[in-house]
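Margin note: ligand = guanosine-5'-diphosphate.
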Amino acid sequence: MFDALADRLESAWKKLRGQDRISESNVQEALQEVRRALLEADVNLQVVKDFVAEVKTKAQGAEVIAGVRPDQQFIKIVHDELVAVMGESNVPLAEAKTKPTVVLMAGLQGTGKTTATAKLALYLKKENRSTLLVATDVYRPAAIDQLVTLGQQIEVPVFELGKDADPVEIARQGVEKAKAEGFDTVIIDTAGRLQIDQEMMAELARIKQTVQPDETLLVVDAMTGQEAATLTRTFHEQIGVTGAILTKLDGDTRGGAALSVRRVSGQPIKFVGTGEKVDALQPFYPDRMASRILG
Ligand code: GDP
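Resulting structure:
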């Protein structure tokens, strides 16, 4: 586990010959290595600073464990802290007391939001939970067709009113239909723009206000690295999210966005996307992500 960081820490300690326990002086060098590892994993700079400060406090206060090398002890402290920040365990999708559970998908264009919408429906289908998908992205010509095609592929119905309808109205009617027809879940795909703009946020806020979702999931592209923190902050402040889906983890990113998203929003990452295929969605596990981030 954490081979790359483990190797670096070992060499950091070797330089400090004779130091057989965690102390003020040797911890500095080790913290530098952690800082470097997190920045290489694309964790947001401020998040790295806060994280390193916390690890420092914990490491300096740590009891020396007999027979355990200080570098190993230090790695465990870093690992445990990463897991703690990312939420200890997997947090499943919310389930409303009365059907349907309403899930609102939010995020920028190109992040994999529409794909994640279908992936989530397929994931729920495998758990025998029925889903109605709702297409409200009337701005991007192919967006509705894309969801309809994905729906056909996974054999999950898609509600749409064409591209001339009002997105808020589509969402409202979609939820009504899901309620009337006894679906377990309704997932609303919303418009994403290339950049955050006020109009998009205002529309999303209106949809949210209208359908009162049980979950508002922010879809974040793991490849955006540092940017993930800014994006999450904006969406969380303006809309309020209850969780996130981190996509494109099959890419070569170490996934530092996971730490940033959780830290900035305080909300759990619920799923990760690991490919373009519609079944490439997995629950998020903090301990696995900690290993990946540390490399
Ligand atoms: P949207 O604009 O946010 O709705 O994004 P789309 O769902 O249309 O996805 C944008 C592109 O990202 C498409 O080419 C998807 O196939 C691709 N994509 C989505 N999720 C993943 C993922 O987890 N891994 C990879 N490699 N590609 C993905």
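Residues 107, 109-115, 192, 247-248, 250-251, 273-276, 280 surround guanosine-5'-diphosphate (CB under 6 Å).
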